[in-house]
Design brief:
Length: 181
């Protein structure tokens, strides 16, 4: 066996024995990448941490299925499963807290968006009367321009009438003075 500081410290045969599987099954797992390994000449060394994790997973699966044999259950395995359950609970708790925080942040963003939509709807409702007001103002400006033109025309007509009336009165006076006088 290699030294403890090397992470590839468990031989293929020892790993199969620890996992309670055949070397052929272990070889399939190594080939599929389920476990990390390193070849040193003709000896295959298995990654110790990966082996421990896989052993815990396999024991947990067997416990869940209810197929664990009492001969395989060791105090270390029970402690490992307890630690695994505690770590799973911590992981689920952490995931739940992260999800709750994420949901809360998204809810706040959603509420802010709803508020902004309400503001925009109010602006749209106010802008429609504003558009009508602008159109009415343009109509009034046109009407007042037309009235101003009409007023100027009437003033000119009035002055023409006054001028012509005065001229007619003067012509009548002159004509009467010439005839009678």
């Amino acid at each position: 066996m290699k030294s403890k500081n090397n992470v590839y410290s468990i031989s293929r045969d020892e790993a199969a024995e620890q996992l309670h599987v055949s070397t052929r099954t272990l070889d399939r797992w190594l080939k599929s990448g389920r476990l990390k390994s390193k070849a040193d000449g003709r000896t295959v060394w298995v990654h110790a941490e990966e082996l421990e994790k896989l052993a815990e997973k396999e024991q947990l699966k067997e416990l869940r299925r209810g197929k664990q044999k009492s001969a395989r259950t060791t105090p270390r395995a029970v402690q490992s499963l307890t630690n695994t359950r505690e770590s799973e609970e911590m992981i689920y708790k952490k995931l739940f807290e992260e999800a709750a925080t994420d949901i809360k942040a998204k809810q706040e963003k959603l509420e802010a968006a709803h508020f902004r939509v309400g503001q925009l709807e109010a602006q749209v409702q106010n802008s429609v009367p504003l558009l009508e007001y602008k159109q009415e103002k343009e109509n009034l400006v046109r009407t007042s321009a037309e009235l101003a033109t009409e007023l100027a025309t009437e003033r000119i007509k009035k002055w023409l009438f006054v001028g012509l009336s005065s001229l007619l009165a003067l012509a009548t006076a002159i004509f009467g003075w010439v005839i009678f006088g």
